[in-house]
Amino acid sequence: MEVKMKIGIIGAMHEEIMELKNSMTNINEVQISNLKFYEGKLCSKDIVLVESGIGKVNAAISTTLLISQFKVEKIIFTGVAGAVNPEIKVTDIVIGTDLVESDMDVTAGGNYKLGEIPRMKSSYFKADPYLFTLAESVAIKLFGSDKVHKGRIISRDEFVASSEKVNKLREIFSAECVEMEGAAVAHVCEVMNIPFIVIRSISDKADDEAGMSFDEFVKIAARNSKSIVEGILSIIK
What we know:
The chain is α/β, with parallel strands linked by helices. It has 6 helices and 10 strands, in the order E-H-E-E-E-H-E-E-E-H-E-H-E-H-E-H. The protein has helices at residues 14-23, 56-68, 129-143, 163-173, 182-192, 210-235; strands at residues 6-11, 25-32, 35-42, 45-51, 74-83, 93-101, 125-126, 148-155, 177-179, 196-204.
């Protein structure tokens, strides 16, 4: 007998959740403060979908509410990101093995590395192995192994649009891509003991042309992420 579960799905922007919402059935909208949560079915699974808003604090608030108010048992964060690894191309997929808040900087206050959070057991939040395996398998089946990458995702409250900065971030963190929410989601899930996965479709190269590239490719990237989420939901147990 199939075990019932409720899965939280988060996207930062309207573009990142719109197609998922349009595919849902039995939708019940719940508003908490300025956030709208959509309970319903997707691929025959019980889900709660939310547009968190941009940035780490917004993402953390939405994640906390999904866990505390809606009692979700797993969380999938989906959306777009800028490539940090120069070998990754626009519309490629990155599945996070671990996530770090790369703008956390207490290096002046002691023997800390950039990204390290004082008094935390770990500052590198590891994705759930089962969800990671599902995401990787689905993504490769959909897009081919040459377009699917796995590795570290970094988050910062900044839209990175500088070749110089992105090269430095790659050097420091060995990251695959950069975005503005995933590590905050991972941080909350780590503290609350909730399995999570972060899946990103690349919309830009986080370089000097990033703004123009983002506007052009965000819808394509969001569709790619949606396909992976639906693939995961169709086989998750």
